[in-house]
Specification:
The chain has 1891 residues and is an alpha+beta fold. It has 76 helices and 28 strands.
Length: 1891
């Protein structure tokens, strides 16, 4: 036997002879050995080969520690020390691979095996966080899921699918027709390919069959070895993880094998399930000491798990009570010696057994005597079983789980594994309970079980063969038993009931979740659920389980002080009831849909009632609930209710056949009614001392996910009870529960022994509202599913407009996923489109972005608005108000009703015949007395009554009229027994006839202090009778309570169980008034009213007119024939009264006559005293109201005007008054100086040297300019590897290259004057336009510093919000003191010649600008300059070669001005055609900024030698001297200078304020240079032929009069001059080819030159606008050039545009043109002598920059997601957890990724500094949202991708397809360009560099 050889080899003794091969050969030539063995095994007689192989494997795969005499010193064979695999393990794996491949290459072997893969299933296994898809259209099981690849390969267009992030892991179901429809399979798995796959050659996998058992055994030995039973029942996580880490390569090897496909999987299945080889290898017999030791460890592990190994003769008794197992549970075990043997087979069960069971159950917990073996016997017969055992022991290591799941496509394995899993179920539960990582473990368990139990066929098989249901129910029961406590409900001392303790970790952390979810999963299969519903034993056990939750989390009302610690356990309780009780219930209900299933319902109902009876007995319940306590958890009641509802609705069962007797019904109604009363108490603030959590419970109880498992069944159960119990009893119970019995008296004063006065009103409202809901709700009483859906939807939409997803969320779906009504199902969409209109998402300029909303259609408001449904479904009371407000608005708008309407009365769907009895409530005397009393009290203005009460009273009357018996019969006969207390009230019980019954006198009990007592007996004088009328009586108060007692007694006697009667007296004593109350005496009141007369008087009272009611049918008899008149359907109380009177008249002629009579009797004149008092009161009220209204109007008007002025000053309102004092630059001749308002101290005044005023500004670094590119189309976001974005064509990159090129060839200081910086990291200054004193600002900052609550900005960094408009800011820009009049003088045009002006400019620039004396103003100027410098990073300021050189500062300062002008130009859309002050105009701070910059720039005087002004305006004689000093680098030639930079330098070097004529002079001079640069650029652009042609034509015209103003002449001159150098040389042929041969016509030349100069003109015009406050003219695009040039004074004023405009006519040469041009060209020629290439590159080109844009995004979000969510990080090559992409430049970054962290900055923050100088816009790939980083703060901006219903899907929770929303993206881009992120987005937080 091979086994013998194996055993021998296992002992470290001498090797058997076959195995003696030279050891070195073994090590060197594994392949040869493998080939040899394979050959040996292929022979027919292969015993020798087998033994040889076994021996080799013994050595290679031994888990033993190295023995002293390791074979031939070859370490490879011995596993590394400590029982864990070491380096030798690597070797062992190598061996295995070699042996499997049988001497060939392992990779080739893999490929060969794959070829035989009959891949009909995908089976790809994934772990948590993987992105998968679910298609509801294709899924049979709701758990169906597909991997992305299979999903995209299949065709799911138009299906209801979504993408989701796997929580627990899963596997792809593609190809599995048990779980999904074949139409959804992808291309790869469509063909059932098994037919054409060739058969696997025997020898291919032969070696595997030999090697794998040893390999797996080796793995098991390691697992045994590594597990040390920890001391205190706590597996030490570290050790377990260490073992697992070492085993990683082995398990990965197995996992790789499973991926080789079906052929290899079937070999593995054979190995794992083969019982013989398991027995041979692991029995622990034989002489190998190591194997024995290993076996012992295994037995110890089994034992410590509280499990027994059945073959050891001693049974390791019961599990030792581990900490946390209650002693009760252990007694349960002890009694569990199998008493229930006979009950296991359900069919043999007889009546007897269940009787015994009932008795036993009352002795707590001995009922759990289910077969003990389920809980603690485990026997392993195969590798698979032991592997699973260790997988559980090690708490489901991910790798093992993946391996076990990867095997599932093998059908045989699937069955075997499922059985094994079920066999270990109890053990899984125990391990889960002990685990510390229960969350992770739960996920892994579900990862496995959902794959097994979603398959109906498999679930059925396991249920039949392995008692799956018994095991699950028992395991759940055992699990919950560990956390039971005694119930304190009702009778605290004697209660025998136990409930779960919601504070325990088991419930708090939802540890039970995996087991419950498996249970729900299997119950969704019809065949399994059927077995469950047929098995009486199981049902009993299950009801037992449910009763653990009955009455949990009991609340006791705190009456004295506030509870110290608010426990938050309530959420655990709600979750537990929903998941552990309600969801399985819905699962079972889904199988009780047809008549044939009646039997199931009867079973459930029967055991449910038994359990309820047991519960009532256990808590010792008689008839009164204990006061001041409530539990929201009554799962037994709800099971009962839901099965009843189903029975009547779907199974046509007779309701009475499943109802218990009256006594039981009375008990059943008590607790649900208690909950309803408690809800009212909680909303009346009677429970405030219990803290907020009690409100939380009241809300959760009605919240959409819970309501249909909680409040709906409760109300339904009450409706059933009401329809079967005596109506008088029921009504009086309701008022008693709500504690308002004492209030229902005719007397004006009363005593309430159980309720404080301030709660009376809201409790009365609560009671009446409850009755209205009870009587008008039809959810379970006859509505169809579609009607219910519609009603729910209308209720939600009436409260508020809703998004599609929130509607899906708010409409209570059947919580069981398999119910068939799937969210988003067809009926949902069709109902939605029927009741609602879609409002597309809108954008408000404030930046608040709306989602797409649904809003109710008009006809819904008109006919379907149902206030009752709204009240039932509101979580917050304010929603009811919101619905009423919207209803009011609708009526006003549609002109149906102008005033404040009352809730409309809505017709109901007809009742199902089984529930007709419910309407008896409306026709019982008790209710009529209550209604009469309340109407009377309202008419008499008693306290504590409200409009709401009246509204509900009228609603009830109307309900009664709608649902009255057809014929008016005298029903007295039918009522048994004399009803003494009612005789004085009403004759019968029909509301229609009782309405007209007049009641004359009422006897009331009143406190002695009451006014009624002081009267004599009712006299006939009117005053007296009125007096007694004012107050009224309670002959019926006691009748209410007494009535209820009497009825109860009757019912009880009928059922004659005498034991109960003994207890009666105790309970009724409660109602005797406490002695402290004043004595009650009896008074008799004269009433003389009927309900009808009270209604008519009410009509008068409500309308405030005498005789306001006139019966409408007297005028229009038609009304009686067709009563549904629209005019009555909406309106207020008056309408309601009219509607009721009309219905009453319709119902009976008697009523009609009586109404007419009452109206005929003109109401007698009421005694004056009454009128005066009441009316005076109302008159006063009116007057006071009127005054208050006027006062309010006045205040509002004042407020509005203030706001208007604020808006005009601060916002972009282009208001006509342009002379608001805040507008600094406006000229105001009458004021001598600019006046500023300080928004802090409120004083106005000029800004002065010693108390300067400043503008509130925000300084921010910006790289927006640098992002301009030269093409109009924005770049696309890369979505494949090929598309990448390179930044070298951005404006910033081009300017950088230019500067470094200049610095290579020219003198540094000169280079820094020839360009501007700030394209990247330039400082942008913006203001809200408000000013403040700088000293005020400092104290304001101080106060902010001391204020701790501020979030969102950092005061230490100087950040604050403007005190007036709250706009974000971080500095103050001082206003330069200067008067406006002066301004005007400066602007007068002067008649000096240009030569004089040039000289003046030069002189002024030459004066050194000493810093003004040390004043406050100058200090502030200095500090703000520091702020500006610190706004941007150093690298964006220092460009000089010599660090710290003053040239740097000089360059930086004028570039700040440049940046702000350029940005303003971009904000205006890149041109100035629109003119005007534009949006930015009002808030511009450029004027002040210029003063600050100029002041600082004048500190650095440029050497007059180098001042470019001289080169521009003078001819320098010594042209050659410059070239003399070769070794020194030359200056930058003037033609290489950037003209806009020169402009800013010239202007900022002048003393401020500047004179207008000097400004114009500078512009004229610079324009000549600019024009020349344009000519040079043009000459380089065209080819040699064009050049010579031009040279020629220009030369001819040179001597005409205006040669200096003709571009042809100038151009030819430029070409002639430059031809002297090498600029045009080296052009060769290839150059010509690249430049397209444009034919240069005069028009195109002119256009080119205009475009060349236009940018400069725009910037200059803006500058002029800000410095001198001149308006910009608006114009057409084509005439922009001429308009701007005349505005700047370049055009002579007399210039008339007769013929086409020529740009050259703007030239005004300060010196002869040809001389200066040749001087400029000479500089270039001398440079190109040496560097011809660069000479051309450095020429100024025309401005080609287009407006900046963000990247263009694809239409569908999935495109982005699929590419980026799997993209690896370039730093660590892992897939980042939170990938993001920059929307400015397309860089892929890791959000919060530690791998990419540099000096404590995470990658996004770093990128935002490099790409946007501190502003970053990132799209978070996994969340679809955009995040903005601004400096040290960040905010979530929102999403630019919306689904088909116009809403965002943050975090891709819903996973529906998302599409780009162009409008939103435009808004984002606009905010980026205009730098307004800080102002528009409100929720900022610090990111601490961690993003």
């Amino acid at each position: 036997m091979a086994a013998a050889a194996a055993a021998a080899a296992a002992v470290g003794g001498p090797q058997p002879p076959q195995a003696e091969m030279p050891a070195p050969g073994l090590a060197l030539d594994k392949a040869a050995t493998a080939a040899h063995l394979k050959a040996a095994l292929s022979r027919p007689d292969n015993r020798a080969g087998a033994e040889e192989l076994q021996a080799l494997l013994e050595r290679v795969l031994s888990a033993e520690r190295p023995l002293a005499a390791a074979a031939d010193g070859e370490e490879a064979a011995a596993a590394g020390g400590g029982g864990g695999p070491g380096a030798a393990e690597e070797e062992a794996l190598e061996w295995c691979k070699c042996l499997l491949a049988g001497g060939g290459g392992y990779d080739e072997f893999c490929a060969a095996v794959r070829a035989y893969d009959p891949a009909a299933l995908c089976g790809l296994v994934w772990t948590a966080n993987f992105v998968a898809y679910r298609c509801r259209t294709c899924g049979i099981s709701p758990c169906m899921s597909l991997c992305a690849e299979c999903f995209h390969q299949g065709d799911h267009t138009g299906h209801d699918f979504n993408m989701f992030r796997s929580q627990a892991g899963g596997a792809c179901d593609c190809g599995d027709s048990n779980v999904m429809r074949e139409s959804g399979f992808c291309k790869r798995h469509q063909i059932k390919s098994s037919s054409n796959i060739p058969c696997v050659p025997k020898d291919l996998l032969m070696m595997s069959e030999f090697v794998l058992p040893r390999f797996i055994f080796c793995l098991i030995q390691y697992l045994r070895e590594g597990y040390n039973e920890p001391a205190a029942d706590v597996p030490s996580e570290k050790d377990l993880n260490k073992v697992l880490q070492l085993l990683e390569p082995q398990i990965s090897f197995l996992e790789d094998l499973t991926k080789m496909g079906g052929a290899m999987r079937s070999v593995l299945t054979q190995v794992l399930t083969n019982q013989q080889s398991y027995k041979d290898l692991t029995s622990g017999l034989g002489e190998n000491a190591y194997a024995r030791k290993s076996h012992e460890k295994y037995l110890i592990a089994l034992k410590s798990s509280g499990l027994t190994y059945p073959e050891d003769k001693l049974v390791y008794g019961i599990q030792e009570p581990s900490a946390g197992t209650s002693t009760l549970a252990v007694q349960g075990f002890a009694g569990a010696t199998g008493t229930l043997g006979q009950l296991d087979s359900s069919d043999e069960e007889d009546q007897d057994g269940s009787q015994g069971l009932g008795k036993r159950k009352r002795v707590k917990l001995s009922s759990n005597t289910k077969d003990q073996s389920i809980m603690d016997v485990l026997k392993h017969k195969s590798f698979l079983e032991e592997l699973l055992f260790w997988t559980i022991k090690y708490e489901f290591p991910q790798k093992m789980v993946t391996f076990l799941l990867n095997m599932l496509p093998d059908q045989e394995y699937k069955v075997a594994f499922t059985k094994t899993f079920v066999q270990h179920y109890a053990f899984i539960m125990k391990t889960l309970k002990k685990s510390h990582e229960s969350d992770t473990m739960s996920n892994r368990i579900v990862h496995i079980s959902v794959q097994l139990f979603s398959n109906e066929e498999l679930a059925r098989q396991v249920t039949e063969e392995c008692q799956l249901l018994d095991i699950m129910v028992t395991v759940l029961l055992y699990m919950m038993e560990s956390c039971l406590i005694k119930s304190e409900l009702q009778d605290e001392e004697n209660s025998l009931h136990v409930v779960v303790n919601c504070g325990e970790a088991l419930l708090k952390n939802n540890t039970y979740w995996p087991l419950v979810s498996d249970f729900i999963n299997i119950l969704s299969h019809q065949s399994v659920a059927k077995r469950f519903l047929e098995d009486h034993g199981l049902l009993v056990t299950w009801m037992n389980f449910v009763s653990f939750f009955q009455g949990m989390n009991l609340n006791k009302r705190e009456l004295n002080e506030h509870v110290e610690f608010e426990s938050q356990t309530y959420y655990a309780a709600f979750a537990a009831e929903l998941e552990a009780c309600a969801q399985p219930m819905w699962g079972l209900l889904s199988h009780c849909k047809v008549r044939e299933t009646q039997e199931y319902t009867r079973n459930v109902v029967r055991y449910c009632l038994e359990a309820l009876q047991d519960w009532f007995d256990a808590i010792n319940f008689v008839d009164e609930p204990a006061p001041n306590q409530v539990t929201f958890h009554l799962p037994l009641h709800r099971y009962y209710a839901m099965f009843l509802s189903k029975a009547v609705k779907c199974q046509e069962l007779d309701l009475d056949s499943v109802l218990p007797d009256q006594e039981m019904l009375m008990k059943l109604m008590i607790h649900p009614l208690q909950i309803q009363a408690s809800l009212a108490e909680i909303h009346s603030n009677m429970w405030v001392r219990n803290g907020l959590q009690i409100k939380g419970q009241a809300m959760t109880y009605v919240q959409s996910h819970f309501c249909n498992s909680m409040i709906d069944p409760d109300i339904y159960l009450l409706q059933v009870c009401a329809s079967r119990l005596d109506p008088d009893y029921f009504i009086s119970s309701v008022f008693e529960r709500f504690k308002v019995v004492d209030l229902l008296t005719m007397a004006s004063q009363h005593q309430n022994t159980v309720l404080d006065a301030e709660h009376e009103r809201s409790m009365l409202e609560g009671a009446l509202t409850f009755l209205v809901i009870l009587l008008s709700l039809r959810l379970h009483l006859g509505m169809s599913d579609d009607e219910i859906l519609r009603a729910e939807m209308v209720a939600q939409l009436c409260m508020n407009d809703r998004t599609h997803s929130s509607l899906l969320d708010l409409i209570p779906e059947n919580p069981n996923p398999k119910s068939g009504i799937i969210p988003g199902s067809y009926s949902f969409e069709s109902v939605l489109s029927a009741v609602a209109d879609f409002k597309a998402p809108v954008f408000e300029p404030g930046g608040s972005m709306q989602q797409g909303m649904y809003t109710p259609k008009a006809e819904v408001w008109d006919h379907e608005f149902d206030p009752v449904m709204v009240i039932l479904r509101t979580v917050y009371r304010r929603d009811v108000q919101s619905a009423m407000d919207r209803y009011t608005a609708f009526l006003k708008q549609s002109g149906k009703f102008p005033g404040n309407p009352w809730p409309p009365y809505k017709k109901r769907t007809p009742l199902h015949p089984s529930y007709k009895g419910l309407m008896r409530l409306l026709h019982c005397k008790t209710l009529h007395i209550v209604l009469f009393t309340l109407l009377y009290k309202i008419l008499m203005d008693h306290q504590n009554l409200s409009e709401h009460v009246l509204c509900m009273v009228l609603y009830l009357i109307e309900l009664g009229l709608e649902n009255s018996a057809e014929e008016e019969s005298d029903e007295e006969a039918s009522v048994g027994g004399p009803e003494r207390c009612h005789d004085s009230w009403f004759p019968g019980s029909n509301l229609v006839s009782n309405m007209r019954h007049f009641i004359n006198y009422v006897r009331v009990r009143v406190p002695e202090t009451a006014p009624e007592v002081k009267r004599d007996s009712p006299a006939s004088t009117s005053s007296d009778s009125l007096g007694s009328l004012q107050n009224s009586g309670t002959a019926q108060v006691f009748s209410l309570v007494a009535e209820r007692r009497k009825k109860f007694q009757e019912i009880i006697n009928r059922n004659s169980s005498e034991a109960n009667q003994v207890v009666r007296p105790k309970t009724s004593n409660k109602w005797s008034a406490p002695g402290s109350a004043p004595q009650l005496t009896t008074a008799i009141l004269e009433i003389k009213e009927s309900i009808l007369s009270l209604l008519i008087k009410l009509h008068h009272k409500l309308s405030g007119k005498q005789n306001s009611y006139y019966p409408p049918w007297l005028d229009d008899i038609e009304i009686l024939i067709q009563p549904d008149i629209p005019k009555y359907s909406h309106g207020d109380g008056i309408t309601a009264v009219e509607r009721i009177l009309l219905k009453a008249a319709l119902q009976s002629r008697m009523n009609k006559r009586i109404i007419e009579e009452i109206c005929r009797k003109v109401t007698p004149p009421v005694p004056p005293k009454k009128i005066t008092a009441a009316e005076k009161k109302t008159l006063d009220k009116e007057e006071r109201r009127q005054k208050a209204r006027e006062r309010q109007q006045k205040l509002l008007a004042e407020f509005a005007s203030r706001q208007k002025s604020f808006m005009e000053t601060a916002m972009d309102v282009d208001s006509p008054e342009s002379d608001i004092p805040m507008e600094i630059t406006t000229a105001e001749p009458q004021v001598s100086e600019a006046v500023y308002d300080c928004v802090i101290c409120g004083q106005s005044g000029p800004s002065s040297e010693d108390r300067p005023t400043g503008l509130v500004v925000l300084l921010q670094a910006s790289s927006v300019l640098g992002q301009c590119r030269d093409n109009i189309e924005p770049k696309k976001l890369p979505i494949t590897e090929e598309e990448q974005i390179y930044p070298w064509d951005t404006c910033a990159a081009v300017h950088d290259v230019r500067l470094s090129l200049l610095q290579r060839y020219f003198k540094d200081s000169s280079c820094l004057l020839a360009v501007s910086i700030g394209w990247e990291g330039g400082v942008y200054v913006q203001t809200c336009g408000h000013t403040l004193h700088i000293d005020c600002h400092k104290s304001y900052m101080e106060s902010l510093r001391n204020d701790q609550v501020l979030q969102g900005f950092s005061v230490d960094k100087g950040e604050f919000t403007c005190p007036l408009c709250r706009q974000f800011a971080n500095s103050v820009l001082p206003c330069y003191p200067g008067s406006n009049v002066e301004n005007n003088l400066w602007q007068r045009p002067s008649n000096k010649s240009i030569q004089d002006l040039i000289k003046e400019v030069e002189e002024l620039q030459g004066r050194p600008g000493a810093f003004p004396s040390e004043t406050n103003l100058s200090k502030e100027m200095e500090s703000v300059m520091k702020d500006i410098k610190n706004t941007t990073q150093k690298k964006y300021r220092d460009y000089s070669k010599t660090p710290g050189s003053p040239d740097n500062d000089f360059l930086f300062m004028y570039s700040v001005a440049r940046t702000n002008l350029e940005l303003e130009l971009i904000h205006r859309g890149g041109n100035l055609c629109s003119g005007g002050a534009s949006t930015a105009g009002k808030r511009s701070c450029l004027n002040q900024l210029f003063h600050v910059l100029a002041l600082h720039m004048r500190l650095y005087s440029i050497d007059s030698e180098y001042n470019p002004w001289r080169k521009l305006t003078q001819l320098l004689e010594e042209m050659n001297s410059q070239l003399g000093n070769e070794e020194q680098q030359p200056e930058v030639p003037i033609l290489y200078h950037d003209v806009t930079s020169l402009l800013l330098i010239q202007i900022l070097m002048m003393p401020q304020p500047l004179r207008k004529d000097h400004f114009t002079c500078i512009v004229k001079v610079l324009f000549t240079l600019l024009y020349t640069q344009g000519l040079v650029a043009l000459s380089v652009k065209c080819n040699e032929d064009d050049r010579s042609a031009w040279k020629h034509t220009g030369a001819l015209k040179k001597n005409t009069c205006d040669a200096e103003k003709s571009y042809e002449v100038l151009l030819s001159f430029v070409i002639r001059e430059l031809s002297k150098g090498k600029l045009y040389h080296e052009e060769g042929t290839q150059e010509c080819a690249t430049i397209s041969p444009i034919a240069w016509s005069p028009e195109s030349t002119e256009k080119y030159l205009q475009d060349f100069c236009l940018h400069f003109l725009r910037i200059t015009s803006l500058l002029q606008h800000h410095l001198f406050g001149e308006d910009l003219p608006s114009c057409q695009e084509e005439e922009e050039f001429s308009v701007l040039s005349s505005c700047l004074g370049l055009l002579p004023t007399f210039y008339q545009t007769e013929h086409p405009f020529i740009s050259a006519s703007c030239l005004d040469w300060p010196v002869p043109a040809f001389d200066i041009i040749s001087q400029w060209c000479f500089e270039i020629n001398s440079f190109t002598e040496r560097h011809a290439e660069q000479g051309k590159a450095l020429l100024i080109q025309e401005s080609r920059w287009k407006l900046p844009h963000l990247l263009q995004l694809p239409e569908n979000y999935n495109t982005i997601f699929q590419y980026y969510h799997r993209k690896t990080c370039s730093v660590c090559t892992k897939v980042p957890k939170d990938p993001a992409v920059c929307l400015v430049c397309g860089t892929f970054v890791c959000l919060k990724g530690l791998c990419c962290k540099q000096q404590s900055y995470c990658e996004c923050v770093l990128h935002s500094q490099n790409c946007g100088a501190g502003t970053g816009i990132f799209l978070l790939i996994n969340a679809s949202v955009i995040i903005i980083i601004r400096g040290h703060r960040f905010c979530l901006w929102g999403s630019v991708y919306l689904d088909a219903h116009g809403e965002e899907d943050r975090d891709l929770r819903r996973g529906k397809p998302l599409y780009i929303c162009k409008e939103r993206y435009k808004v984002l881009e606009q905010q980026w360009i205009s730098h307004t992120f800080d102002h528009i987005n409100k929720r900022w937080g610090p990111h601490y560099n961690g993003l």
